[in-house]
Each structure stands twice: as structure tokens, then as C-alpha cells.
Amino acid sequence: MSIDKIIISNRSALQTKYGSTGFQKIQSTVKQLIAADKKRKINGLLVFIDDPKAMKKAKGKMVKDPTDAEQCKNAVDSLFHHYTPDYIMLLGAQDILPHCRFRIPIPDDDDNFVPSDVPYACDAPFSRNAGDFIAPGRVLGRLPDITGGTDPSYLVTLLQNSINWKPLKLSAYKNYFSISVKWWQKSTKISLNNIFQNNSKLKLSPPTLGPYSKPDLGAMMHFFNCHGGLRTSEFYGQPNENSSSFPVCLESNMLEKKISYGTVAAAECCYGGLLYNPNRPTKIHLPISNTYLQNNAVSFVGSTTAAYGPADSQGGADYITQYFLIAIQKGASCGRAFLEAQQRFVEKGDVKMDPTDLKTIIQFLLLGDPSVTPVESDPKTTPGKTPVKAIMNKDAHDIKERKERRWKLAEKSVFINGTTDAPVRIEAPERGSVKSDIKKELRKYKFKDGKKMVYGFKKRKGKAKRLTTEHEYRYHVYSNVKKGGIIDTLRLLVIQEVNNKVMEVKEYVRR
Q1: b/e string for 346-377 if b means 16 or more Cβ within 10 A?
Q2: pLDDT given at position 460
Q3: Which of 237, 229, 234, 227 is nearest to 182 (CA)?
Q4: C-alpha span between 317 and 342 (Å, rounded)
Q5: 326-339 residue pLDDT tens
């Protein structure tokens, strides 16, 4: 029997966290999920990466240290290559299966490391270089528990939601709830128009502060373009760029018992997907992402660190979040929708990626069961395909279609990896006329020639040569920061230099 979905966790870490009784409850519920998935024509398997027999069967090494990301990445790779599943579900938060961590230097960006699940979705072997993981090709999501928690009921609830889920009509996911920082409304309206073909339900903060009614929060899709903070259970608004006022526009406790079963949420906000420990060093509310899933949402896409996007146009976090919601509406599973969003995001950018785009592809993650499909699809009318008059063996046909989609996504990953390069920080002065051109742009956008970083690109080792002539790219990134009590207002000016000429200028703001 082929395995379509592997559920990966760490037995010893779960037992240490929940005790034998709690572990047994979780394991029993996972078995129920596997039985429910089988009825959906998905053959599942639970694998503990610290189980020597299970890992030997997959020709891999057991994980001895549950905090070692390299051991965990190697184990996931071994399991994927052995079973070639259509879905990978990581079971547990970062204290069960650790994120991989990367340094991505950006001027005035306070993140020392970027926690990421993206390497688990990539064929590239473990490394500490974020640029090795810009081309994910595996459908993967993380069904988290509460970091530092001891009550198994949270994770059992999330598993039960996956067990009982049945797809809904597309019309259910045309209704939405959305909040934006007031002075980012132009950018947010573009995103909403792209997703829902209207922006009429957008709430701006200020004046929007909450709490919100059950009909408001009962919408099946939620989209946020707000400020977020490190280890906070809140999203924030801001009236204008120069304001030091950051009113709370959403708190995790505003969501309790108001979220519809099957809700799909995406947040551009900084730290919106960070699975922090709510009990240490001080006790605070659960992360917003955890709270969504606890209140019957089936997926949440967010960032583990500070994210970026333009205030009045599109880029960075705008794209990866809206692409995810658009793919959900087209009938993709949560995992496939997120992978398609990741790949589409990288494809849309320059072949020489700028540092903010590198951080974006690494920092966003999917929280939820990747095999859950929110919108029911009709295989006879798949978008972009010639309509099918009749399907003779539906179950076999659906499996065949799913396998073909995985092959295409895997091939696209290879293509992206062969045609896109990630930046590295270098020490290099401006050359020739570039120096004066950059000074003009700094004056135009009101940036000082102060804090900056320069990025270049290494020679392509192990990648096929392009048919076109290779150009020499550099990025010059300048920062302008205004310190705040809760949130720092950070602007970045990203100047692209190609063959000693300034080609493009982009401005980003910290979400």
C-alpha cells in the first residue's frame, strides 16, 4: 500500500511534555485521523523520528536530540524519499519538532534568527544558508500544539477538527473579515480585490479597535495587514507613518467562540505565525495563530518574524498571503495552496532575489493539517483544463490527478532552483555613476545615507548555466527607523543595481 500522507512527530518529546496518559490520548486521536483520511482516499502513516525501527525502515537515522534541527531535517528527508507522500504533516510545536533557523541580515531589522519550516519542504540537504531553501517542492504543514503546554486537549481538538472536516461550496469562502493599518489601505485594497474582487468589508485601524461581532468573525476567510509584535497576542493599527500611536485592533481573546468551523486565515503581520511560549517568561494569552486553530479554523498562514511589504502597492508579504487564499478558493488543499503560493511568489520576483524577498519565502509557514481541503472541487471543471464529459473511476481518477499535481510541483521546484539566486551580504562601495544615482534616490524618498547593507550573488555552483548572458546584480538596502514603545516604524529602500546601473527602486515598510 502506498503512503499518501506521513504524520511526523517525536515520541519522547510528546511523552516528556504530556506524560504517558496524555501521549496515549494524542496517539489514539491520530489513529482516528488516519482512519478518517482513509475514507477520503488518503493513506496515512504516523512516524516517530526518534523510533529506531521506523527510521531504519526508511534508511534514515533516528533523532537523538529533539532540539536538533539538523537531525530532524535529515529524518524528514529520509521519510519523504522512502514513502514519497503527497502530504507531510509535522505534529507539534517547536518544542516537539524544531524550526530551522537562519541569519538574514537586513539593516535595522532586529531579528537575529528567522525560524522556518521551509527546509522540511525542500529537497536540498540541511544547511544554515537560507538561500539553499528558496524552492520548496513538498506539500507540508504543521499542526501545532501549544509551545510549553502540558494539556493534550488542545492538540486533540485540532486533530478532531481535521477528522470531522468536509469541504464546503466555494460561496462559503467568498465572505471575508479583514483589518488593515490605516495608512496601508491602498495596498490592502489591492490584495482584497485580487482575492475577493471587492474591498467593501475592509476595516481600517484606527478607528477599528474591536471587539467584533460573531457575524463579522464568522466569515470563512480572514485577511490581516496590520502591525505585529514579538511575543504579543495582539495585532496593531497606526493612523499614519509618523504616528507613535499603535492601537490594538485584534487580541486573541476577541476570537473565542466566534470563529466558524473551517475558517482559513492569512496574516501579513510581523510575528503573526510565531508559536511563542505563552507561559514563559510571563503568562500571556495564546498566540493569535494558536487561538484561531483552537476555535475551529483549519489553517493559518503567518510569519515567524518581522515581515515587509509596500504601504501603497504590492510586494513581499502581500503576495504570499493572497496567493494562498486564492489557491484555497480554487479548490486546493491547505498544503498545496501554500506550496503554490510559495512557488508563485518566487517566480514573480527577479531571478536575482532581493533580501526582503529571501526573508519572506523563509519566514512564512502553514499552521494546520495540509491535507484538509476547504473548498469542494469538481474534477470535471478544473480551472485551466478542458472540461471533462465523464469520469469512469472517480476514486482512482482523483488519486491520479493528485499524483500528477505533485509531480508538476516537484518539477517547478527544480526549475525555480535552477533559475533563481538568493543574495548574500557583501562589503562593496558604490561604483561610478551608481553612487550619484543612489544619492538622488535617497533624497527623493527621504532616506539618509546612513545605515545600509549591500548584497551580491555567488557564482552558480551545481546549477545549469542560463541561455542568456549573466548580468552582475547588486542590491543596496537603506533603512529609516523610528523607535516606538511597542512597534518600531521601519522603512527600507531597496535599490537594484545591474551592470553598474540603477535599475529599480522599491520601498518597503515593516509589518
Answers
A1: beebbebbbbbbbbbbbbbbbbbbbbbbbbeb
A2: 65
A3: 237
A4: 11
A5: 999 999 999 999 99
Q: What does the CA dihedral 511, 342, 45, 396 come to, rounded to 10 degrees?
A: 140
Q: Do 484 and 282 contact (CB within 8 A), yes or no?
A: no
Query: Tens digits of per-residue pLDDT, 141-195?
Result: 999 999 999 999 999 999 999 999 999 999 999 999 999 999 999 999 999 999 9
With cut-offs at 50, 70 and 90, classify the pLDDT of residue 138: very high
Residue 456 CB-density burial (10 A; 0-12 exposed, 13-18 middle, 19+ buried): middle
Q: Mind listing the pLDDT tens digit for each residue in 193-227?
A: 999 999 999 999 999 999 999 999 999 999 999 99
For residues 107 and 492, the answer to whether their CB atoms sit within 8 Å is: yes
CA 211 → CA 208, 258, 349, distances in Å? 9, 11, 38
300's grid cell? 493559518
| Residues 59, 39: Cα–Cα separation, whole Å | 29
- Burial per residue of 245-256, b for 16 or more beta-carbon CB atoms within 10 angstroms, e otherwise: ebbbbbbbebbe
505 contacts 221 by C-beta, under 8 angstroms: no
> What span, in angstroms and rounded, lies between the C-alpha atoms of 182 and 227?
11
Q: Which helix (H) or strand (E) holds 29?
A: helix 11-39
88: amino acid identity, one letter: I
Question: In one letter, which amino acid is 48?
Answer: F
Which cell numbers hold the place of 392? 469512469
Predicted pLDDT of residue 467: 45
pLDDT of residue 485: 73
Q: Are 367 and 299 in contact (CB under 8 A)?
A: yes
Q: CA 87, 224, 289 angle in degrees (round to 5)?
A: 50
- What is the rounded CA–CA span in Å between residue 122 and residue 408? 15
Is 383 a residue whose pLDDT tops 80? no
pLDDT at position 469: 52
Residue 384: the pLDDT is 60
CB half-sphere exposure, 416, CA atoms < 13 A: 30
Average pLDDT of span 29-58: 98
The C-alpha cell that represents 406 in the structure block: 505533485
